[in-house]
Amino acid sequence: MAVQELTQETFEPTVTGNDIVIVDFWAPWCAPCRAFAPTFEAESEQHDDVVFAKVNTEDEQAIAAAFQIRSIPTLMIFREQVIIFSQPGMLSAGQLQDVIGKVKALDMAQVHEDIRKQQEGTGGDA
């Protein structure tokens, strides 16, 4: 599957309309971003069930600000609209494969239950 370029208009529908979305926050002037791009693109060809997307932080500053992107490249993974992984810096092909495997293996029913419990626990004490 080809890597998608996300914009302010396409970001939310992409995240809400797909089970797993991996977003690479990057900029054209960033050498590590350019070095990571072939790894990201190659991995996208291996996972038809995952959306691989990029956000150009120069063009889409509002998205970068909303997710408090302070360093690029930053990789962020959404599963069922929950941010499961967020990490600045390049990953090797092996590291990216490992992270994707762990994201796919997550028990999302348990993740959603944990989020619900956390929200209930912090909501009543404030």
Q: How much helix, percentage-wise, in residues? A: 40-55%
Number of helical elements: 5
Task: Report the strand count.
Answer: 5
What is the CA-atom radius of gyration, in angstroms? 15 Å
Low-confidence stretches are none
Q: What order do the helices and strands follow?
A: EHEHEHEEHH
Residue-averaged pLDDT, rounded? Answer: 93
| Major sheet size, sense and barrel closure | 5 strands, mixed
Strand content: 15-25%
- Strand order, biggest sheet? 1-3-2-4-5
Shape assignment = globular
What is the distance, rounded to the nearest whole angstrom, between the alpha carbons of the first and last residues? 45 Å
Class by helix and strand content?
Answer: alpha/beta
Question: What would a concise description of this structure say?
Answer:
The chain has helices at 11-16, 31-44, 61-66, 93-105, 108-123, and strands spanning 4-5, 20-26, 51-56, 74-79, 82-88. By secondary structure, the chain is an alpha/beta fold. The model has no long low-confidence stretch (mean pLDDT 93).
Describe the 3D structure.
- The protein is of the alpha/beta class.
- Helix content is 44%, strand content 22%.
- The chain contains 5 helices and 5 strands; from the N terminus they run E-H-E-H-E-H-E-E-H-H.
- A 5-stranded mixed β-sheet has the order 1-3-2-4-5.
- It is globular, with a radius of gyration of 15 Å.
- The model has no long low-confidence stretch (mean pLDDT 93).
